[in-house]
UniProtKB/TrEMBL annotation:
Natural source organism: Ceriporiopsis subvermispora (strain B) (White-rot fungus)
Record's signal peptide: 1-19
Sequence intervals crossing the membrane: 168-197, 203-225, 237-254, 356-376
Membrane topology: Multi-pass membrane protein
Name this protein carries in UniProt: Mannosyltransferase
Amino acid sequence: MRARQAILALAVRVTLALATWSFFQPDEYFQSLEVAHQIVFGYGKLTWEWVSPDPIRSILYPALNVPVYWLLGVLGLDHTNALIWGPKILHGILASGTDIWVCEIAQRVFGDRYVSTTMLLSLTSFFHGLCLSRSMSNSLETTLTTIALSHFPWDTSTSYSRVQIRKLCIFAALGCAVRPTNAIIWLYVFVILFWRFKAEPRALFSCTIDVSVICLSTVTLLYALDSAYYGKATITPLSFLRINASAVSLFYGSSPWHYYISQAIPIMTMTALPYVLHGTWLALGPSGSVASKKLLGLIVWTICVYSMAGHKEWRFIHPLLPLMHVVAAKSLVDLHRSVRSTRHPRKIMAQFRFPINARDLMLVLLGLPFLCYVLFFHARAPVEVVHYLRGVPMEDMRSVGFLMPCHSTPLHAYLHRPELADDGRVWSLGCEPPLRGQAIGEYHDQTDVFYDSPVVYLERHFPKQVDPSFPPSRRPSTDPREITSFGNDWSHEWPQILVIFGSLLSEPGVRELLQRIGYREVWVKESGWEGDRRRQGGVRVWRYSDTGY
């Protein structure tokens, strides 16, 4: 372990985590922080994945935040900004593992001279900067995968180490526990591993025993944790795989087979893409090795398998990005050596620690301004509005309604107002998938119904006048625990505060209706460019005015 690299990685990832103010994915909050907040403080927004009859999420990943929240509660700091900073610091520390151990992979596959360049690519990566320090299971999956692969015997000429294989198995098993689809990576890796030992019966036997014991132990631990949390025998990986293999996953969108090749990889690698492609060519050529070909095979295998699924997202292949950085480092370092042999050394970054040509370094770093924009400015309003609400006095915020696409902002894990713990006091539109066998093409969730005709929805599901006592809404969204088919029998009370996107006010009759019954705009924050029409116009807070503000 290189201590200086570890300190640098920790400093960068924790700093980025604390500095991040933008909204990227709802899972950052609703599949992690909200669940842990509910465990420690007794309230939090649990989505259908957690409360449906067959839950698909393991408590393992959200539970990492539980000690942080518990300690803050014990110290009386849960009503300070430490409630938000604590988990950020934790996930920044976890994220640094990717930067640290990807250097080990680079050293094992290509050699020592590629290590510092790999570290540079990892630390300056646009997609790492955007996602890696966030509280998302894909981020921890990336770190665990990188650590595990750093213990893989890439070079067949090296001697077999049972300790290394055990470390590989432990971190691979944890990666699968966090994200069951991580098993796709390990199917390839362990086929290669067992093939290596085909002529060594003793090594093959010991490896089989280690893999079996560690897998069985991990499954048992996961079963015990999830069964204790849900109060019944639960094997969440099976439910997770069953749901994601069904048409339900297509409810969240489908993409063409080439999505990862034509969109995800170019966006994730950004300015490093030319070097990934060139490094691939070099790794397959005479300057490559058996180890580099195994690494490329793993990337190709995983992308091919993921491409078969209908629902695709960039972050699903995030664990492959560190491997792409290793391949790009091969290109950058070899280009530097080639140019150095033909040019005067003063024209090269000879005095610079990283063995990279000046123009190549400039191209690699060109993604940093884009990273600064998406971290500090883009989609900042959905997070900032909750910070604003945290500061509103209790008597001025007896209920809050989010008339937005579902999960558009953080909720209780940031708001942290016990007096609003009742689901009827703080509510948002639902977007449960068709879990009862409804046809995907014909199914409309609550958010769809609302945006089909906002005024009709408001007139049908809200009272004609505002009740100044602001009682909790009886049925603001559908309860996924219900066995009956989803209906549209939602029933709202007008809240004291409404949070909306500005585009809603351009819908016919919405602005006039809100003003007629007594709402006035009290806070607005623009969000920058937004492709989804429903989320355009910035975030706005409207408050019922008769109580004074």
